[in-house]
Design goal:
This protein is mainly alpha-helical. It is 66% helix and 9% strand. The protein has five helices and two strands; from the N terminus they run ααααββα. It has a two-stranded antiparallel ribbon. β1 and β2 form a beta hairpin. The longest helix is centred in the last third of the chain and has 24 residues. The protein starts with a helix and ends with a helix.
């Protein structure tokens, strides 16, 4: 339940989604997430770091950890289901 609470918080999944393709600095992550305030982004990044899903990246800003990458892989079946569902709605 702790994981579902964390990733269910507004913007958490979006941050993880944006980091799936590689490290992002704060400004790029904020721009890619579209509409997230700096204070909320800071809070979510702190929470995701504490959960060890995200880590600072020496030059690039933030990156997914091994656990963050594994979570992304675990969510792939849900993403495929969502894609099929979205196509049926359109």
């Amino acid at each position: 339940m702790a994981l579902l609470d964390l990733i269910g918080r507004r913007w958490s999944l979006r941050i993880l989604w944006e980091l799936r393709e590689g490290p992002q600095n704060f400004r790029d992550l904020q721009a890619r997430a579209g509409g997230i305030s700096p204070s909320v982004l800071n809070t979510r990044l702190k929470e995701l770091r504490e959960a060890r899903l995200v880590a600072p990246s020496s030059e690039e800003g933030y990156k997914l950890t091994a656990d963050g990458l594994a979570l992304g892989a675990a969510l792939q079946p849900l993403n495929r289901w969502a894609d099929r569902w979205a196509r049926r709605l359109s």
